[in-house]
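does this look right to u?? pyridoxal-5'-phosphate version
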Amino acid sequence: MEQHAQGPIGDRTQAIESSLDQLRSRIARSAVESGRTAEDIQLVCVSKGQEDPALRAALLAGERIFGENRVQEAARKWPALKTEFGPVELHLIGPLQTNKLREALALFDVIETLDRPRLAEALAREFRAGSRQPKLFIEVNTGREPQKAGILPEDADAFITFCRSDCGLEIEGLMCIPPADQQASPHFALLSQIAARNIIASLSMGMSADYELGIQLGATHVRVGSAIFGTRTQV
Ligand SMILES: *Cc1c(COP(=O)(O)O)cnc(C)c1O
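got this back:
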């Protein structure tokens, strides 16, 4: 059968392209409104739950930074695409179990979910042993939600010092996922304060519903999934 450009895959590709266009211009506008430029904000396309045609559409539209929440899923999806499209910056945005650490270090360029002393120690050990060294963001549980990963805000300063001084790790940024049922702005403001007083350069905050707010409050990275790819069937 002949394949038509306007089949379901063509439609999906166009939808992703136009979502990305709209997203990029809104990011640029928010950046300018907060005294920065579009280049100061990194769009992390959250591709968890998305498969090849959708990933390809985003790659063809020029995106090169992607976020995945599961090591295994990323390992299945990305190596072939990296070979085909060239360098892609992969961010791990889901919890990292130490038994997946080596696989994660081989695959990811940024780990946004450093959230406990034992993981910091394990990372330091692997780095000393000569592993690849992804950039590290510490996840802060700004909403103090028991079911969520992340360092509690009151423990953040001590944990940052532990990572730097005891483990010799460079901390590139902080990340948070505010409670779904609350205003995000106090959480973003809190994360931004923790970063400022610890001289941390990058802030990963803001998702589909609130990336503009994230940028207004100082985000350098926004993690956007459904506003690009549509609603997920799987979380
Ligand atoms: C899924 C997810 C996102 C993206 O959420 P959307 O609302 O689809 O934009 C961002 N960050 C993390 C940590 C996620 O798990």
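The pocket of pyridoxal-5'-phosphate is lined by residues 46, 48, 69, 93, 177, 207-209, 223-227 (CB under 6 Å). idk if thats expected tbh
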